[in-house]
Amino acid sequence: MVLLYPICKLRRDPCRRELPTFHWFLLELAVFTLIEEVMFYYSHRLLHHPKLYKKIHKKHHEWTAPIGVISLYAHPIEHVVSNMLPAVVGPLVMGSHLSSIVVWSSLALVITTISHCGYHLPFLPSPEFHDYHHLKFNQCYGVLGVLDHLHGTDTLFKQTKAYERHTLLLSLTPLSESIPDSPKME
């Protein structure tokens, strides 16, 4: 954020006294989310190209078991291109106030950690989609799944029990209990 301050200041002073209205802040979050989804999906999918995967993205996929700390475990090029840029372009485009940038950055970090943590916690986004990506490297590239749906990169995922569990958990009963995996054939 410190490195982005001079760039933000060119667009509009992010530390101005006037806070954004709540409605403007919600609009900003929607724009940030849209920009992040597009940029992350395409940069992430590009990193799965064999030449880039082997040299750059494979480091992130060394971990197939879900654990929150690997959400940012990446090659420096990947971290800038696929993790940082999708998250910062929205605030730069919108000329956002520092308060909006801090809330957005916090949300982005929490959501990426949840998507890698392996726990489907009540009232929080499901990690099933990204867990599946770490199992099957050519599926589920995005954050929201919209572009995966449009490009058909979620078709195998939609045929799994994980897809049935990919919902908002509204109880304390784990979805892995209510929707268990199919028994393995011996």
Automatic annotation (TrEMBL):
Transmembrane region(s): 22-42
UniProt domain Fatty acid hydroxylase: residue ranges: 30-153
Keywords, alphabetical: Membrane, Transmembrane, Transmembrane helix
InterPro entries for this protein: Fatty_acid_hydroxylase (IPR006694), Sterol_Desaturase_Related (IPR050307)
Entry superkingdom: Eukaryota
Keyword Transmembrane included in the entry's annotation: yes
Protein name: Fatty acid hydroxylase domain containing 2
Native organism taxonomy: Eukaryota, Metazoa, Chordata, Craniata, Vertebrata
